[in-house]
Amino acid sequence: MAERPQIKIRLLEVFDAVLRTGTTRGAAAHLGVSQPAVSQSLRTLEEQLGISLFQRDGRSLIPTPMARRLAASTGPIFDVMGDLTGDVDRIVGMGTAELRIIATASLGHGVALVALREMMREMPTLQASLRVHDNAHVQAAIELGQADLGLMLGTVTPRNLTVLPIARAPLVVLVPRDHALVKRAMIGPADLVTETLIGAGKVIAPLVAGAFARQGVAYRPQIETGYAQTACSMVQEGLGVAVVDVLSAELFANSRCSIRRFYPPTHLPAQTLISASPDEAKRAVIDTYLKAFRAAIEQAPAMAYQHRADMYNI
């Protein structure tokens, strides 16, 4: 069998541009090339892959199922690369300490901000940025040098980066405050069989499915979403109940939602990602932030079990 030629990054860049704009004309304008050049690049990529990537619908190009699968791998890379220009502009002429953080939503909207606040009290001239993305974006950003520190929930396969475990976040059940399940201190799979269950994305779903399986219950969410925080928002709007990480759930523990323990006990690792070889000055800044981040995790009510009883029982 003949070996497939290595795919050039430019062909994938053209594919990504067509996927985002929906037309060869839009992709050409985005990339600053001619429309025929875009069309030729697409044909070349399809020939190399041996698949069809788009179907024409009038002037628009509709991605095929195979194109969508390819985009799941290429999209995060080009999203991160798109931030390069802004990063360079911000760095030029700074001359002061800088820290670029990228985090998943449950951390980036909560304890990561608490840690950043404490760090900036200690380093008031710090130039800081914090972006929120999914796990794939977080890992890609660190690997490509587009961020100094990644914060994420879930497992990661190290590729030229350092992974430091921080904590283990338990999974919990988020329910509307007026729901009958609020009367229970602990909720298990058998209690959720008849409920409208909201799936919380590919990071959490396998853990929940495994917990259900251990109890002999099939995991069949009626509503699916890609993110724990979106699942929490759906619970808040009364669409159902969700099993999510406790750090996401705590952001929604209010007069409309309550958190309950999930049984059997299931945890999601909180981890930090650092590029393999930051210079000494940068590593000092990273270590200062990590110290504050660890303290924020430990002191978070959801993790320290110093809970607001009027909001939830865990």
TrEMBL record:
Record keywords, A-Z = DNA-binding, Transcription, Transcription regulation
Which one Pfam family would you cite for this protein? LysR_substrate
Which InterPro entries does the UniProt record give? Answer: LysR_HTH_N, LysR_subst-bd, WH-like_DNA-bd_sf, WH_DNA-bd_sf
**Does the record carry Isomerase as a key word?**
no
Give yes or no: UniProt keyword Transcription regulation. yes
An example molecular function term from Gene Ontology annotations = sequence-specific DNA binding
Which family does the similarity line name?
A: Belongs to the LysR transcriptional regulatory family.
Which PANTHER family does its entry note? TRANSCRIPTIONAL ACTIVATOR PROTEIN LYSR
Name the record gives this protein: LysR family transcriptional regulator
Q: Give the source species.
A: Pseudorhodobacter turbinis
Query: Lineage in the entry?
Result: Bacteria, Pseudomonadati, Pseudomonadota, Alphaproteobacteria, Rhodobacterales
